[in-house]
Amino acid sequence: MPLPDRRILLIYAVIFLDVVVGSAIGPIMPEYVRGLRQPQLWLSLGTGIFLGVQLFSAPLLGKLSDGYGRRPIFIVSAIGTFLANCLLLPVRTGLYLANRASDGLTNGMYTTVRSAITDISPPDKLFKNLGIEGAIISLGFVLGPMCSGLLLTFYHIPEGHQAAYVAGFAVVLAAVNIGLSLWLRETHAQRTGVTGPELRAALLEAVNLPTLWQRLRIKNQTHPGLLRLVLTQALFTLSIGYYFYFVPFASLSALQMDARAISYFFMSFGTASIAINYLFYTYVADRINQRKAIFWLALLGVPVLAAYGLVGSSRVAVYVIVAFDCLTLSLIQGLLEGLLAQRTTDADRGEIFGLNQAVQGLASFAGTLVFGVLSVVDLRLPWAWFALCLAGVAWLVGRAGKAV
């Protein structure tokens, strides 16, 4: 059996550290808005800013990665994440919002991540490699909160200083990721550069939402089925908005979880997700009808999402629901990414992934506004919204199957 390409291992390492950094600071986010009126709205606003700026950063970074290569985008993104996390060292609401904006600008890196993985993946390994990406992300979601929890527990850091210590830990890891990005060799051979006029045009297109839709329609003519897949991913993105909502829900609802409890929850969630994703994408994903799998996983995931809103104060119930979560909707993302990757070429892979992430950014921004408003009415209502969006995924994929 040939050894795996060292570049893909480095890409996985970069993803892993990036997610660890992002998830490590998740449990401390409520500290930056504590004492403000309607703190859940401020947390939702921060999430909306983080995701919304990807509307233009993702297509732009995707275009640049097609023209200049994937490696420069990895390096710039790693530096951006480092600087963004430095903003969190003083625990201030204004700096928290600034962090969300600056970190969102470079989070478009995941456009480049998927392009780079697809660049160097043989066709028969594509679903597996993209599925491993999902498992790596899950692993990051385990170790990030776990490291935060261990840091807060073993060093007995007093409550008023917890956020600053965790932010400092994230800064150190972000610095390590800069080194890994510098070590990565290029994966994209057909680099043609991007002229000044092309760059300005790409930037204008990125901030012009009607042209975003038009560009996708044009791409759909040469890659049939692309537009439906992008719309399906947008609906799925709306449904997994609960990843961002869970922290305010767990801390402000009857669950009353503190930073440690939230860290332990994500540790359990991530551990189960790693094992299940690895087994599924290593032994199952390439041997099944992916569209049918998405339909059934989405359909079975609808009651799982609805159940989160009914747990009351029972933390045991949350952990039970997570087990079903890992077996259903948590498996969908890699399948959607694999189907999308099959509809790209070396010439436009970064651009297509960038357009897709921009649509997901728009969906995330809109969804954040929706669940933010719903949470003011009742903290349980957003779970009904997430379940409804996942039902839409099942409906859209089901219609695509009938059309075929």
TrEMBL record:
PANTHER family: MAJOR FACILITATOR SUPERFAMILY (MFS) PROFILE DOMAIN-CONTAINING PROTEIN, MAJOR FACILITATOR SUPERFAMILY DOMAIN-CONTAINING PROTEIN 10. It is found in: Membrane. It is a multi-pass membrane protein. This is Tetracycline resistance MFS efflux pump. Belongs to the major facilitator superfamily. TCR/Tet family. InterPro entries: MFS (IPR011701), MFS_dom (IPR020846), MFS_trans_sf (IPR036259), Sugar_transporter_CS (IPR005829), Tet-R_TetA/multi-R_MdtG-like (IPR001958). Residues 7-404 form the Major facilitator superfamily (MFS) profile domain. Keywords: Membrane, Transmembrane, Transmembrane helix, Transport. Resistance to tetracycline by an active tetracycline efflux. This is an energy-dependent process that decreases the accumulation of the antibiotic in whole cells. This protein functions as a metal-tetracycline/H(+) antiporter. Pfam families: MFS_1 (PF07690). The lineage of its organism: Bacteria, Pseudomonadati, Bacteroidota, Cytophagia, Cytophagales. Signal peptide: none annotated. SUPFAM superfamilies: MFS general substrate transporter (SSF103473). Gene3D superfamilies: MFS general substrate transporter like domains (1.20.1250.20). Its main location: membrane. PROSITE patterns: MFS, SUGAR_TRANSPORT_1. The chain crosses the membrane at residues 6-29, 41-61, 73-91, 135-157, 163-184, 225-246, 261-281, 293-311, 317-340, 352-377, 383-401.
